[in-house]
Amino acid sequence: MSALRDRLRGIVVVASALTTVTALAQHAPDRAAVASAHPLASEAGIEVLAAGGNAFDAAIAVSASLSVVEPFGSGIGGGALFLLQPAGDGQAVMVDAREKAPGAAHRDMYLDAAGEPIPRASRDGALAAGIPGLPAALAHLAERYGELPLERSLAPAIRQARDGFPAYAGLLRRIESRSRGMNAAARKAFMPGGALPVEGQLLRQQDLAATLQALADQGRSGFYGGRVAERLVAGVRAGGGIWSTEDLADYAVIERPAVTGQYRGAEIVSAAPPSSGGVALIDMLNMLDGFNVAGLDRVGRVHLLTEVMRRAYRDRAVYLGDTDFVDVPIARLTHPYYASGQSATIRLDRATPSDALPGVSLPPTGPGDQTSHFSVLDSRGNAVAATQSINFSFGSGFMPADTGVILNNEMDDFSIKPGVPNGYGLIGAEANAIAPHKRMLSSMTPTILKSARGIALLGTPGGSRIITMVFLASLAWIEGGDAAAMVAVPRFHHQYLPDVIEYERGALDAATLAGLERLGHSPREVGRGYGDMHVVTWDTETGAVDAASDPRGIGEVRYTTR
Ligand code: DON
Asked: For residue 431, what pLDDT is reported?
């Protein structure tokens, strides 16, 4: 078996070394497309495109609208990673709007006197919130890339907050389950009159509308300075948090080069640190490149993909963190030679126990299903793949009074103690320890794929499972699937620890499960479905634009000819 594997690996490595990404023959998109987690957010993007905006203006509209209509998943109280691809041959850039630790944060802030984690201290209340980055990103996009004033691009979201939008089942379910952990201002915003809204009832958020209006009128200082900043800081401090006005005033987005790699004729352009997503995605594809994937049966394929996931997530835990604070060997981790060293340890006839890889053994915890991804393409070929988050459902549950801004609990994405798993069961080490002003490690993986077929924009929420969902969908596109196939691909996941294959219901049939168990894997069903992927594709040969929203969610695609 292993001799055969070595032979196959040799052949494929030679073949892939000769493969270069075909230059894109650009045929303008035959229409513009927006795919997002809520129909009203997609419509906000289309409204701004129709008003003469480009994909970057539309991204502002979609992002801000999601803050309003999907307040449990992301918002201006949180952060985001925007991957921007300007039309033409320009390089993609990542606008890093990840939250930062407040200046008064310190490494052991969530540990008790005995050095043990204080339960939920990094998850609930004002102390769990990082300094938001999303409002700064919206202002930055308008200033640097947009064609419309920020005010115009924010108009749909302000209207949706002020006039209300119909409450829907998924929102009500999440309000109900999170309401006990919310502070009074948050409960008032989402349970007006003290009661859970009924389905279809208009949910108005006047304070949020006013805060968005301040951002529209004054740009970033409408949020990071003046009255809004004062209210945010006062609220956080009254709630036991440690924000200062300087933390807000000093927040700045950072433009970083995207990380890139190649797999069988496709170029992969993805999120750089402080996300672990792009590095892990490219490492996984590099490892796969050494195998004859097409020649495997279902058990063999799931097994191989699992082994690849296991190794990439082990590295994530060890090496990844904010590159402004720690050295992350990005070039090494995304280099094909590095991956061939990793894949040399993969056996096709047996699972590698995670504890056979250097590391530590830890208990599992489950991921949530919040955060939000959207993809936008305009008719000139400008493209955006963006993922934004407040982390868990309704973030910290804390809303500073009179702001309408529900704050993130992204501090939990730090490694609060080396080797102690966070809310997604992810472990980390020194590289992702808390430090003042540091950005916490993310799994958000907005991604752009390019090949002779054209371009695909993709991403999803899903905590630690984000990267493997993007991995599976990327493979689906590279192997010939369309947007609908990418979002529908059955999902399974391995993250090194816990040493189990998590899969959504129906993703692995009985024969596959039995085969995997025979190889030494421990598959575990984790519910009916997870993730909420939104994809746009553009065939650059013909100009055909296609898009798809995840069948597991309520999102919808919208198109326009503008
Ligand atoms: O940045 C991250 O990796 C997480 N805060 C994302 C959280 C997420 O996707 C929640 N949804 N499941």
From this structure: 84
| Closest C-alpha among 365, 357, 366, 353 to residue 315 | 357
Specify the 3-state DSSP secondary structure of 386: strand
Taking CA atoms only, the protein residue closest to ligand 1 atom 2 is 442
Please give the radius of gyration of the chain, using alpha carbons only, rounded to the nearest integer. Answer: 22
Phi, then psi, of 219 in degrees rounded to 5: 70, -155
DSSP state of 196: P
The DSSP symbol for 95 reads E
How many Cβ atoms are within 10 Å of 32's Cβ, its own excluded?
29
Strands (E), 378-428: 383-389
Q: Rounded to an integer, what distance in angstroms lies between the CA atom of residue 207 and that of residue 452?
A: 48
The rounded distance, in Å, linking the Cα atoms of 45 and 42 is 5
Catalytic annotation, pick one of 211, 260, 306, 371: 371
Q: What's residue 22's pLDDT?
A: 43
Average pLDDT, the chain: 92
For tokens 């309003």, the residue is 68
Q: What is the pTM of this model?
A: 0.94
312 φ/ψ angles, rounded to the nearest 5 degrees: -70, -40
How buried is 542 (Cβ within 10 angstroms: 0-12 exposed, 13-18 middle, 19+ buried)?
A: exposed
Structure confidence by residue, pLDDT tens digits, 179-221: 999 999 999 999 999 999 999 999 999 999 999 999 999 999 9
Question: Residue 539 has what DSSP assignment?
Answer: -
Nearest C-alpha to atom 8 of ligand 1 is from which residue? 463
**Calpha distance 303→299 (Å, rounded):** 6
Residue with tokens 């490219």: 282
422: confidence class by pLDDT, cuts 50, 70, 90 = confident
Pocket of ligand 1 (CB under 6 A): 367-371, 389, 391, 410, 413, 442-444, 461-463, 466
Asked if residue 283 lies in contact with residue 334, where contact means CB atoms within 8 angstroms, the answer is yes
- In order of 59, 185, 210, 227, 380, the CA distances from 402 in angstroms are 27, 8, 9, 10, 41
Tens of pLDDT, residues 295-339: 999 999 999 999 999 999 999 888 889 999 999 999 999 999 999
Mutate to test the pocket of ligand 1, among 99, 322, 391, 409 (most ligand atoms within 8 A of CB): 391
The beta-carbon contacts of 324-332 under 8 Å, at least 24 apart in sequence, are 324/254, 324/438, 324/439, 325/435, 325/438, 326/430, 326/431, 328/273, 328/279, 328/431, 330/259, 330/272, 330/273, 330/279
- Residue 112 and residue 110: Cα distance in Å, rounded? 7
Residue 371 known to be catalytic = yes
Q: Which helix H or strand E contains 313, and what residues bound it?
A: helix 298-319
Main-chain dihedrals φ then ψ at residue 541, nearest 5 degrees:
-80, -45
Residue type, 104: A
